[in-house]
Design brief:
Number of domains of chain A: 3
Largest sheet of chain A: 7 strands, antiparallel
CATH class of the largest domain in chain A: Mainly Alpha
Shape of chain A: globular
Largest interface: A-B, 61 and 61 residues
Helix content of chain A: 25-40%
Number of strands of chain A: 24
Distance between the termini of chain A: 50 Å
CATH topology of the largest domain in chain A: Glycosyltransferase
Number of helices of chain A: 18
Oligomer: homodimer
Strand content of chain A: 15-25%
CATH architecture of the largest domain in chain A: Alpha/alpha barrel
Strand order of the largest sheet of chain A: 2-6-7-8-14-10-11
């Protein structure tokens, strides 16, 4: 059975009330979403215009003008609408819904007779549409449109946007597909694959599933469509002189023959997510096995300790196994988000906690590092080592920003963060008719029918700062089902109590399955010991040899100049160091910091203008080291930051 | 007194007979020079054409065609002629001289009525000449033409090429200079400055010196000439969006206000060499002080342990202090050669051995690493850490070649190596009327008049493999002068004997001054202890913390995969290790190798697809490490290489 074992609980059934995530969700709702709407409408002073909504206006004939912005500018509106939809599910807001309805009206007005909807080609000449699937993002915009439309339909029950998306899918289906009169193409930037499966879940129309499957199966088949397309239309091939070639697009060979994650990292994980969806719905074991190999390659050979992926700025791409530079890194926020998407599907299909482990790793580290604590600024690039002077003066590090930026011309990451954070409840809690899965430890109230009876779970926790989780079960009548709790990979020692009594239940795939008859008033108490862990990397990773990274629970820590001075590379963490932890309420919106014994190579032995000395033994100064959660770095001004610290 | 204390001995008076350098010189003479002539004439099968000589033919009206190749393609011919000139000084070769005369005839035939001679503009439209001094290398070609012409005149006594160069200088002087009707410009790529001083030494014409001085003093003055020029002629400004700005050309501010080496590394050291020359001839203490500051900045904050400089491929440039990445490095062969040029001038002016120390460091490491042991292949980029897969797949390392290349479209390095190696005798031995300086320990016979009497020194040594140098003095009559021997900075223990007896003479500026009456048959024996030294870098250098590089004498060592296996980053050199040295005659043309005790992190503890483990102590395997001289790496096929090794 490849059918999903579990699915997200409805976001309207989850009311998050969590010391960690609730702030982020509120920031997204109250700040990011309104701010992005202003940005999409070019009303942010000092920021470069987005042109996104203006393009729709011009395409709808409501304004005179030309297409402006990136070829994929439309997708920003769709991602925004998706975030709005999730937000409306857990926080109804008629005013916001009205704004969204207006945006949807405008989008629909721009749709062409035959369903086509991409403002770039509507404004630049429809005769050129579908001539550059490789680079012109029509299918990417389609994918995000579907995702936004499905979410908005689920949130509001309104079909207008959904029908608009279906018409565009119909238009694409009439132009692309296996029939001889159609183009044998597929998306240059994947996302439509997973979106079409989700659309199929709503419509039940197998045509939507078939298109997703076609996109996946046709990808990389000989003769290569992209190769033929670019030659036929004289399109530029940006990767002609790179070793990526068509694998930049994961399109150099059939996807079933791809076992290493390659090329543009966001595209890659979006594709794999779509593959997992198709494998599940079509019960395609071979395809799922490929997904597992790709997964194993990523998390076993190409993932940073923060869950970040895509080590090279060039092509925003994967490079080669164990190539994980910390300073010239790319590690795009969107790629970590994409890995969360992939992880959730693999978890849903297999029920294996190792996928949730990575999901958690990404969420608490490489994803939220992308957003400032005030929700106003964003990182695209999430380095594990940062030096202000290098970012300023080293061309190879100039993409590594030391401070988060307000808004970007290419605005993929902020709306992506927004849509993920506003739907995080669905990642935390999943279920089927007989099993309830607690994947992530996020406080709040969840309603779910299990064993035929409506249950209400009230979850209280101070995770990730403390390892205790308390759950109150409310139901109208006793009911039998399994309450499955993930025991995280990082956790060595834990205890489970039900109604205050130690409880022993079978472990399966990393979840403890509390299958029993649950009564109203039952309580569950999970206690996870949460020591500071000194993490070491595989010695095949060149950059991390002799170094350690600290983690506590799911949280990766770092040193910041603000606490430890500059020249962080000269700091050694003592191998025998004890760790003191302290919850600092006033610091960085409230974080647990770690203090450890360290020492620092003395620069006092060195004149500034002496570079090399023979037969020299360093002298060290003792230094107390203070580590803060990685995601919270760069919220106190510019300075050095370091995750992997020398060990001694 | 800023006049030079010493000058090169005449190359015709030095007959090198040295176990280390003679092979290189012979390679240059018998292989590189003939090969380059073929290359300049596009007769190398499989190599991209140079078009160099063809451009001269077309410009001279002897062939129909257009300009092809780089804007500075002419300079390859001039550098080749310079190398030929040096070679002819110590190895007369009528056939080669005839070929060179033919090349000179052709060059002179291309010269215009008014002396102008740059085939790029002759063939692309003379009306455009002098409209892009910033990037179009007219002055660079002029500089190399002068250098070649002066050398050829000195080697052969023939004036044709010299007169041709003088006419071009006259033409430039009529167009560029301080007078209001002239352009207030200067070279975009420096070299003409030092060349003009050398021309002045031959011609005695102060006009030539004045032009050099003008180029230096005018550089970077407000209003910036390059800024005005590019705006006036709509030239592209490549560095507009880089932090280098006009400092890429060392032209963002007056040279007397520049105290950090900045911008394109070759240009920088060529400029500083010219500044030192002008400071010396014009007795300009202020300018010399600037040179010293720039020197100190380079060797104290921006030089690799191999003497390489210019850490970034972007702009082939200096970046910022202590920024010395070993893997994304640029470290162009030509830049190390330029540093040798600068060093020699500073040495000649000050008599301080610290300049010769750097000269020696460059020559035995970062310069000759640029050429394969068979003289057939060249590196532009000289990494201190190389991994084949990274060079293939990491865009940021693709300029770092693992194997030397046959010939380059931009052919600056090979002819630059050739001209330096064929004149190395002049770097080793310098003199004035009363003092003879042994700067480098290179075997051979040198004739020089000292104290009014012709002397002949016969030097025997196995340097750099052994630290003993024996000198026989021959002269027709007793004569008093100082035989000054440099005691290298790396040398802690040494003894000097004259006629077999321990001799004590005063040290000054790092030279021991054997001032006495020298008789025929006198002998000098210098013994330098040459232990293996573990070199440590200033802890401000991020990349080298916790690591050591081995040196023995002037030679930097490295680990190669061929001897030590791959994953060189996992190797630790033991702090307490003893070093065994062994001269291996058959290895790499004969080298001293170093064996040391090391250990290697075991990958056996790690599954291939596990990236991170908590609280893990590495296990180590003992491993004997074998180090080879850095310059000799990559002569046994592709593989990893590492200079800075972890210490434990």
């Amino acid at each position: 059975m490849l059918e999903k074992k579990i699915n997200m609980v409805g976001l309207d059934k989850v009311s998050i009330d969590d010391n960690f995530w609730k702030d982020y969700m509120e920031l997204v709702r109250s700040h990011v979403i309104p701010y992005q709407w202003e940005a999409l409408n070019d009303r942010i002073e000092g920021a470069e215009p987005s042109y996104c909504m203006q393009n729709f206006k011009v395409a709808a004939g409501k304004k005179i003008g030309k297409f402006q912005g990136m070829v994929f500018q439309d997708s920003d509106a769709y991602k925004w609408l998706e975030a709005v939809a999730y937000s409306l599910m857990w926080h109804p807001d008629p005013e916001l819904e009205k704004t969204a309805d207006g945006a949807i009206d405008l989008i629909c007005d721009a749709q062409q007779e035959d369903g086509y909807l991409d403002t770039y080609y509507i404004l630049n000449g429809l005769e050129k549409r579908f001539t550059n699937l490789m680079d012109h993002h029509e299918m990417y915009c389609l994918g995000h449109m579907i995702e936004g439309a499905v979410a908005y339909y689920r949130a509001t029950g309104k079909r207008k946007f959904l029908d608009c998306a279906i018409r565009y899918v119909d238009c694409v289906s009439e132009n692309i597909g296996p029939e001889p009169e159609k183009l044998p193409g597929y998306p240059g930037h994947e996302v439509a694959e997973m979106a079409l499966v989700e659309l199929y879940r709503v419509t039940g129309d197998r045509k939507h599933l078939e298109l997703a499957k076609y996109f996946i199966d046709q990808r990389g088949q000989e003769p290569l469509y992209f190769d033929q397309e670019r030659k036929a239309h004289n399109n530029v091939f940006h990767w002609e002189h790179s070793y990526y070639q068509y694998q930049y697009y994961q399109a150099g060979k059939p996807v079933r023959k791809q076992f290493r994650a390659e090329g543009h990292a966001v595209r890659a994980v979006y594709l794999y997510t779509g593959m997992a969806e198709v494998a599940s719905v079509t019960e395609d074991q071979e395809l799922l096995d490929v997904c597992k190999k790709l997964w194993n390659n990523i998390v076993g050979k190409q993932m940073y300790v923060t869950g970040a992926i895509g080590s090279s700025q060039y092509g925003e791409a994967f490079t080669f196994d164990y190539d994980l530079p910390n300073d010239t890194i790319y590690a795009e926020t969107c790629a970590a988000i994409g890995l969360v998407f992939f992880a959730r599907r693999m978890l849903e299909i297999t029920g294996e906690s190792r996928y949730a482990d990575v999901m958690e790793r990404c969420l608490y580290n490489g994803v939220i590092s992308g957003m400032s604590l005030d929700g106003k600024k964003f990182f695209y690039v999430n380095p594990l080592e940062a030096v202000p002077e290098a970012s300023e003066k080293d061309f190879y590090k100039k993409h590594v920003k030391i401070e988060r930026q307000k808004w970007f011309g290419c605005a993929c990451c902020p709306p992506n963060v927004a849509r993920l954070l506003s739907s995080i409840g669905g990642y935390a809690y999943e279920a089927n008719l007989q099993e309830f899965y607690m994947n992530l430890f996020i406080g709040g109230n969840i309603e779910q029918t299990l064993g035929g009876v409506e249950q209400r779970f009230s979850v209280q926790t101070k995770y990730p700062w403390e390892g205790d989780v308390h759950i109150d079960v409310e139901n109208g009548q006793d009911s039998e089902y399994a309450f499955a709790i993930r025991i995280p990979g990082w956790c060595g020692v834990w205890t489970l109590k039900i109604n205050g009594e130690s409880a022993e239940y079978p472990m399966k795939n990393g979840y403890v399955y509390g299958r029993r008859i649950w009564s109203n008033g039952d309580t569950v108490d999970l206690h996870m010991e949460m020591p500071v862990q000194r993490i070491v990397a595989n010695p095949r990773v060149r950059e991390d040899v002799g170094k350690a990274a600290l983690m506590r629970g799911p949280v990766v820590y770092c040193l910041e100049e603000a606490d430890n001075g500059d020249l962080l590379q000269d700091i050694y963490l003592k191998r025998e160091s004890e760790f003191d932890i302290s919850y600092e309420k006033e610091l960085l919106n409230g974080v647990v910091t770690i203090t450890a014994d360290g020492k620092r190579i003395s620069t006092g032995d060195w004149k500034e203008d002496v570079l090399y000395k023979p037969c020299f033994e360093e002298t060290f100064k003792e230094q107390k080291l203070k580590f803060i959660p990685y995601y919270s770095w760069s919220n106190r001004g510019a300075g050095e930051m370091l995750v992997w610290v020398h060990m001694k």
